[in-house]
Design brief:
By secondary structure, the protein is mainly alpha-helical. The chain has two domains: about 260 residues, no CATH class; about 110 residues, abc type-2 transporter like domain (abc type-2 transporter like fold), CATH 3.40.1710.10. The protein contains 17 helices and four strands. It has a four-stranded mixed beta sheet with strand order 2-1-3-4, sandwiched between helices. The radius of gyration is 31 Å and the shape is elongated.
Length: about 400
């Protein structure tokens, strides 16, 4: 045990001297995450305000109909109306973004409405450019006009408008603020933590195996009176520690980023901070531990096989797809933690993180996730030990 601790301290010292490891482990999560949170929040807020304040440019073709709708548009302070354009010209202007929309009322629109029939309206817009909030503004204006026509129709027929309402539906959303936020953050946070955990393991794993091969220090370590297993455990301990530390620093960066956003309403900020409470963080880190062991063992195995640092990078880089795909699947709508998904590596961590954030994690599924992750970690450790024990692998390329 003492020998392994000596090796662990030696490898940790070497790792902390590596600038690339320090940047990926500390600088990126602690600086980049708060920066990303702040920038994304400000950009989203800016785009929302821009879409709300934008002056809509609308072309109309009414054929003498829909006079009340023209009045509605003229009373809107942020709407510019153009008439007397041909249909082809108006459509061409919409296509080149000179107009936001072109609204066409059928020639018999007023006649159809007067005969208690639906009048035809065509809304032309450029879907690739027109923001959803701008389209909602246009649809809102048309809905307002439709409501006024309906009210006039019922008044003309001397009918109570309420007879058309067969049901009165009162919606009551029983989801807590934490569960609502979990729907938004549940896909993003697992992606963030798992990816940073992997990145935290990446550079130390390459440096402590392929890097030592390239520097010629691995032979010195192997000729010392120490068993190979003790060397491997010492190296694995350092890689696991850096992976967990990077994930923990990423969580701290997320906390700092959220607290610094002044635009977040107090009740929303409180709900977010409730998610980042001590119990949730401990559960997240406990899930990351066996997964980090799996990452560390897998990356060390590939790095030991490589002849040089550069070859290790080229071998390991494609392995990121194994990490990204399960996380991406976990973001998809309808994906939830159950007895089946709890057995799928990485995906189970992604879905379990979402359940922990929402506060809906059940002990049985949590235990199943732990068993799956521990079994995977044990299998990867066995494979890594087998590879490290083979001299033809260790001295490959030396």
């Amino acid at each position: 045990m003492k020998t392994m601790l000596v090796i662990f301290r030696k490898e940790l010292t070497d790792t902390l001297r590596d600038r690339r490891t320090l940047i990926s482990m500390i600088a990126i999560p602690l600086i980049l995450i708060p920066l990303l949170v702040g920038i994304s929040t400000k950009v989203m807020r800016s785009q929302l305000e821009k879409a709300q304040d934008k002056r809509l440019r609308i072309a109309l073709q009414t054929s003498g109909n829909a006079g009340d709708f023209i009045t509605i548009l003229q009373n809107e302070p942020k709407v510019t109306v153009r008439q007397n354009l041909s249909a082809d010209s108006a459509r061409a202007l919409v296509a080149i973004d000179s107009l936001d929309a072109f609204i066409i009322f059928a020639p018999d629109f007023d006649e159809q409405v007067a005969n208690i029939r639906p009048g035809k309206v065509t809304l032309c817009f450029k879907a690739a450019e027109l923001r959803s909030i701008e389209k909602q503004r246009l649809s809102g204006l048309l809905d307002r006009y439709s409501e006024s026509l309906r009210a006039g129709r019922f008044k003309k027929l001397n009918i109570d408008e309420s007879i058309t309402r067969t049901m009165q539906i009162d919606e009551e959303n029983l989801a807590s603020a934490r569960e609502k936020i979990a729907e938004v953050l549940g896909g993003f946070l697992p992606y963030l933590f798992i990816l940073f955990c992997y990145m935290g393991c990446l550079y130390p794993a390459i440096d402590l195996a392929a890097g030592e091969k390239e520097r010629g220090t691995l032979e010195t370590l192997l000729t010392s009176p120490v068993r190979k297993m003790e060397i491997l455990v010492g190296k694995l301990g350092v890689v696991v520690l850096t992976g967990l530390a990077t994930a923990g620093i990423a969580m701290a960066g997320m906390y700092i980023g959220v607290v610094q956003i002044k635009e977040i309403p107090p009740e929303l900020l409180k709900a977010i901070l409730d998610i980042l409470q001590f119990k949730s963080i401990v559960l997240l880190l406990s899930l990351l531990l066996p997964m980090t062991i799996f990452f560390a063992a897998g990356l060390l195995s590939l790095s030991i096989f490589a002849r040089s640092y550069k070859e290790a990078q080229s071998i390991i880089t494609p392995s990121m797809i194994v990490i990204i795909v399960p996380i991406f699947v976990g973001i998809m709508p309808g994906m939830a933690l159950d007895t089946g998904t709890a057995l799928i590596p990485i995906l189970n961590v992604s879905l379990a993180t979402k359940a922990i954030i929402a506060g809906s994690m059940t002990p049985f599924l949590l235990a199943e996730v732990y068993v799956s992750l521990i079994a995977l970690a044990a299998l990867s450790l066995y494979a890594c030990a087998w590879i490290f024990d083979r001299e033809q692998t260790i001295f490959r390329g030396m």
